[in-house]
Amino acid sequence: MKIKNSKHKNLINLSLYGISIIFWIVVWHVLAVSIDKEVFLPTPGKVFSVLINDLLPSATFRLSVASTLKNIALGFTIGMAFGLILAILASLSVFLEALIWLPVKVIKSVPVASFVILSLLWIDSEDLAIFIPAIIVLPNIYTNTLTGIKETSSKLIDMAKVFNISYSKRIFSIYIPNTLPYFLSASSIAVGMAWKSGVAAEVIGLAKNTIGNELYKSKLYFMTSELFAWTIVIVALSIMCEALIKLLIKMIQKAY
Fold it and tell me: Are the beta carbons of 112 and 204 closer than 8 angstroms?
């Protein structure tokens, strides 16, 4: 009975999302027709026509998507790994936590554009789309993971000490299960942040053969339909990556 109710609820949710998408496409169409200037706002029909007939079949599209996916996936992974390592270190020492606090606070406060411009002084523009997502993802993973470690029940830890449970067993049976929801929740949110910052870095850094570079060229030559089409691609890829992360989250949670 619960399975049927769950499936029914998922079907209703999908229907609502579908209605929402149709609604906003209609609003978009009405606005585009009202303005009647394609350079400012092309119709959905024109944008999807460019996407399907011009972008998708092209080798440039495949190369740009593959390059951006690689950069953002690598940046996300690096940021996640360093955020996790720093959170573990901070949980071991109050001094280390205080030492890490300022850089994390600075990273969270400084706008992405500022980071991109500053980073161009030190690293190659081709590596910018890896470095920026890593930097943006790191504080979110660090903060949530550290919170999860701190929220781990002290009673469970004391009980483990009383029964002389080894530190390695404590990690796998107490710390990881308690911290995992915080870490996985942060990872899900960080995917969208990685995409936003990564593409912004590509646009500003003019990285060759990337989605960001194609966005910049579309804007430079007033190809508004292409600009909207690439934006749709970014949104779709971001949603797909987030869905993949959520699927992995469910698999990991089942394992624990």
Answer: no
